[in-house]
């Protein structure tokens, strides 16, 4: 079974959604998943950010509008639910300290699902037997 490590850099909702879908697929097929949130993606693991503030989608205006309405109508799963489910089925979740410092985010502001705040080199070292995906 495939083990995946996903580095989330983008703050685009659809990109993060697809990365979480990959991680969940691996986990549900008996693999392992490690998730690393950095730069703009940190908003998805920060407490107190309103769901409407999190939905940013790259692409043309029509696609962005359709994606937002699909989330609001329940056709696309909410990222906070996907992150919670990833954790429930065994994902390890990490946040980048350099990006946290740049964005003035403290450890206390992160959701409980985040296991640790670790540097990128540490994350890559922990992922040596995993397929690495950058989103």
TrEMBL record:
Pfam families: DrsE_2 (PF13686)
Protein name per its UniProtKB record: DsrE family protein
Source species: Ferroglobus placidus (strain DSM 10642 / AEDII12DO)
Species classification: Archaea, Methanobacteriati, Methanobacteriota, Archaeoglobi, Archaeoglobales
